[in-house]
Amino acid sequence: MIDATGLVALPGLVDLHTHLREPGREDAETIETGSRAAARGGWTAVHAMANTTPVADTAGVVEQVWSRGQEIGLVDVYPIGAVTVGLKGEHLSEMGAMAHSKARVRLFSDDGVCVYDPVIMRRALEYVKAFDGAVVQHAQDLRLTEGAQMHEGEVSAELGLAGWPAVAEESIVARDALLAEHVGSRVHVQHLSTAGSVEIIRWAKGRGINVTAEATPHHLLLTHEEARTYDPLFKVNPPLRTQTDVDALRAAVADGTIDIIATDHAPHASEDKDCEWAAASFGMLGLETALGIVQKVLVDTGAATWRDVARLMSEAPARIGSVDDAHGRPLAAGEPANITLVDPRAAWTVRPEDLASRARNTPYGGIELPGRAVITLLRGVPTHLDPRFEGAFA
Amino acid sequence: MSRPIVIQNASLYGDTVATLVVEDGVITAVDSDTRPEGRS
Question: Which of A253, A274, A292, A313 is deepest in the core (most CB within 10 A)?
Fold first, then answer.
């Protein structure tokens, strides 16, 4: 018997944007350490991005990732296949073979780089229709962001860092919405970061285009002012933007324009972050802190309810990822027991050394978050237990 | 058959207090007392 008085029960969380780094960069993260971090964060399923070494652009690689996830058994790991061979943007990958593999891939992304060529993007959108898939786009105009280090604005000018203009994201979001409309396909836009992108998504949805969008916890909390520290922990792609952008993203999450919250959990080895800003890699950890940040910026401010959180972090991502037969299900009799129990009063201070990830590149070290997952069940099996509940499962 | 897990007094979606019973990987019962969260 578990006394869950004061705990909120949600369907197990589903992350549509996770970097597990295996195969290839096991010094930064493995499927095992990433799965453990996910379970601690309340996730029961994650979608693993394709920018591994080798790239997940064949059935062999995605089957390896899927099988390793099942073997570890802490979360269901759903591989995302690359759109193009080697993420080079030149030739479509073996999308059909990945879709028909035992990994049953439905989402395709070159995340980390944009599918920049509009003809390639159009063909990918047409191709995924055959198996009800979607193209997941990292919206970044490559020419407008050559050498870019942070959001283009007053702060970048003061710091002397090359700017990353909002239009570099917005122009691709608009192009891809129109391409999806033109070929009657489905596009999902990753990590929206600007108020302008929000307006374009709102316009596209109003027009009936089959487009969905995500926001990350860090883009809902942090601004480009953090770059004044020159701490590369705040260096991320797309970059942290202005407070106006943060406010627009929060409003769009609240009104449903943005469909989901996804972590873009991006572990990096210390040598890739513990260096000067310009030399550092883009990205930050997110799996273990996402729920606390969402509570802080959305629930505790009254912008969203826990029922909204269930939609944003479980039901909608499961539907977009086509895994809604197993995840994002109602908390009802007969449904799979993928359950996250949240203690909204369990304030905790983030200590990088205590995180389950192999990497340590969290920008939230020393920050207090208001709540956290205390029990995660995957098909009824506890994959994360706060110590106070261990006795109940002994 | 695994031992049932009984989760008592959970606030489903932050809305309604209920008891969940889990057996063999499936939610087998949700016994809601329809109390709105925050009231006893």
Answer: A313
